[in-house]
Each structure stands twice: as structure tokens, then as C-alpha cells.
Amino acid sequence: MKRAGILNSDLSYLIATLGHTDLVGVADAGLPIPDGVWRIDLALMRGVPGFVQTVEALLGEVVVERAVIAKEMARRNPGAYRALKRLLGKTPVEEITHEALKARVRDARAVVRTGECTPFANVLLRCGVAF
Question: Is 98 known to be catalytic?
Fold first, then answer.
């Protein structure tokens, strides 16, 4: 058994198989995930696990070279926006419309569905390399 880090077996497998430029989404409970995109459903109940908590866990194990969010997030969910920006630090963040973000989800290797039930709590993380 793992001693630390992400324990969910599907998520651990995804992380171990990610390559440079792969996209991984972290989504609220309502984001439509297209057929053909691997859904890793962590949602247990309303709010559990939360969006920020899930992103933080992923960032502890994945190198991220850029992120994509809906520009509506800053205005409609400022708490999640500030927390995400803090977690990402100097990582570049592209802000696009929510409709464009939903379309780009089709390109993700996987989307991690959380129990988050606040608006626009979604991000696409583009994987980098550790060297």
C-alpha cells in the first residue's frame, strides 16, 4: 500500500502514465464529460471532495506547464479562482469562455470529477516534464 500521496487507484494509474502535453481536467460535479474521455469519478457527496483540494493533491504529484480555466470563474467563483491561482503560482493560466473550455475537454486524457457544487470550478492542466 502507498504510504502517501494519492491513494485512488485509477488516479494513481493516470498520473503514472501521463506524458508531456497530456491534458487532465479537474471538474465540478456538473461539468459535462464527453463520451470517450476517461472519467475518474471521485464525487462522494455534495462538496466532497472539493475542487481546490483535488487540484492541490494532483499538483503534489504532477508537473504542470500551463492551465486553462473559464474566464467566468474569476467573477462567478472568486474564492476558487484565488485558491487556484495561488496553487498554480507562476504557472501560466489561459482564460477562455466556459463554452470553449467544455469543448476542449474532449482533448483530455481524463477528467477527475469532484463533488464540488460551485460554478465554474473546472480546470484543464497541461502536463510538463520534471527535467
Answer: no
pLDDT in tens, 27-76: 999 999 999 999 999 999 999 999 999 999 999 999 999 999 999 999 99
Question: Which cell numbers hold the place of 61?
Answer: 504529484
Residue 26: which region, alpha, beta or left (left: phi > 0; alpha: psi -120 to 50)?
A: beta
How would you classify the pairing of strands 38-41 and 110-113? parallel
Q: Residue 72 domain-assigned?
A: yes
- CATH number of the domain that residue 49 is part of: 3.40.1650.10
Strand pairing partners for 113?
27, 41
Residue 89 in any domain: the answer is yes
Q: How far is Cα 87 from Cα 14, in angstroms, rounded to an integer?
A: 21
Give the start-end residues of each E strand in 1-131: 23-27, 38-41, 64-70, 93-96, 110-113, 123-127
Catalytic residue of the set 5, 20, 86, 92: 20
pTM, full prediction: 0.96
